[in-house]
What we know:
This protein is α+β, with helices and mostly antiparallel strands. It has one domain: Gcn5-related N-acetyltransferase (GNAT) (Aminopeptidase), CATH 3.40.630. About 35% of the residues lie in helices and about 35% in strands. It has helices at about 10-20, 30-40, 90-105, 125-130, 155-160, and strands spanning about 1-5, 45-50, 55-60, 70-80, 110-120, 135-140, 150-155. Strands 1-2-3-4-5-7-6 form a seven-stranded mixed sheet, sandwiched between helices. Strand 3 (about 55-60) and strand 4 form a beta hairpin. The longest helix is centred in the middle third of the chain and has 19 residues, at about 90-105. It comes from Vibrio coralliirubri. Pfam families: Acetyltransf_1.
Amino acid sequence: MVQVRLMTEADLDGAALVHQSAFIRQKNSRDWLQCNLSASPRFLNFVAESEGEVVGYIIWVQKSGFRPEAVLELEQLAVLPSAQGKGLGKKLILDSLPQVKQKLAEQGSTLKHVLVTTRVDNFAQKLYQSTLGAEVETTISNLYSADEVLMIARNVGERI
Length: 160
């Protein structure tokens, strides 16, 4: 059974292993995740845990201030290679979003839109489209390691 819950300090080592396996060109995985965890509530970090092991994580970021209608970025979504292809990415999105909406409500906000950037060749585009209703808005040439697409899921709070 996989549980999606808020990330804690105790999850950092496991989440760093997931990060290292998913983003091989990046470095200092634990430090990166620690920074994000420390930036709560702007950054909302969740892990997927199975049998006491972190098998994935998702990071949501509030953009452009704490607003009555929040625009979030799905900053990062990662799953261990051994757990891929089992619907865990979709579960991370769908199980964390109600928790995100609750955190937003506690600060007097509602969810409006979700932004996602990902490599042009990343199969996860299909996940973001089918799960969030995200559509490609533009392509950004040579941003990180390749061309990226900016996707926007509009009015997510009303639909999910």
